[in-house]
Amino acid sequence: MKKIAALLLVSALIASPIFSQTVSASEGGLGSRLDATGLNAKLTFFIVKRGIYAIWSLHLGREDLGYFLDNFQNLILMNPDVAGSEISGPMGVIIRIIEPLYAMGIGVSAFYLILISGTPSGRAKAKSLIMNLTTGMVLVSLSPPIAQAFIGFSAQTTSAILGTVDVGIVTQNIDNTFGGPSLPPTCPLCILHAFMTFVEIELGYFTFLPFLLAVWGTFIFFILRFIAVTLFTIVFPLGIFLYSFSATKDLGRNLLEEFILWVLLQEFNAAVAVAIALCLIQKPAGFMSVDLEIPNMEAILGSANGAAGIGTGLVLFEFIPFIGCFILVIAPFLMMRLFRNYLP
Hints:
Blueprint: H1 2-27, H2 30-61, H3 65-70, H4 72-77, H5 85-116, H6 120-141, H7 143-162, H8 168-178, H9 188-199, H10 201-234, H11 236-243, H12 249-282, E1 289-294, H13 297-301, E2 312-318, H14 319-338
Antiparallel strand pairs: 1-2
């Protein structure tokens, strides 16, 4: 990046006296020279300002792209450790608070069943309540191993899905499209962004959006899922407790559904990654991609018989990896929209 900035600055400084001499030679006079000097300073400032912004925005858009590409599968498989102190500690506190409440509820229901209730319907309700409270207390006590087993099953299923195809082709195409660490910042999309920035800074905002959505959006989504799974794993015993009572059943259902959806979301991400890889493997050359034809010297100067030469093709943008990254970003919204109130 420093070399590119220095190159732009040197180019501007070299172009400045040439432009100044050209204007002064054509017009002549001291006034024309002063005007050329002012215009030359504006041109230099224009080039340096646009160059700095183009380099800084590309650096920001591609920052940590190497970590994202190197750990793509690990980010999909990333899950919190239920046995770790970060989760087992708060979960244990919630369990220790809930278990006495269950014991109290079972005692009150038994007292009502033995001494107060005299009707068959009342006895049936008391027996049903005692059974539900007993089942809930057992599940709350076993909630850490239940949550750990469910998350482990999700991780194993996700690994099996990712093992069906080499998803490295996905990271390779993202690398080629956005100019990852294995490439200099001269990828076609980077060149387009630099050119549009020099034309107008506002246009550079739009060419910056693919970097922002595909790279940072996908990376932030994986972090968001990890945080959500950690949070809903901690409150998993509370969800079971609230689900045991009719008055709070809806709230408990929502907590349990969120826990299940955020955990199983990694299977959806793995399926999306596999689908992208299969599309990239099987797609014809140039399908769903924007190509840029760069003419060679024969095309510019013309061949000996006057015919234009053949241009050189350059893939400017691949839509399939970008669409795949976009689906990974909106995956939580799709899951929350499609799967709602599925628990009884």
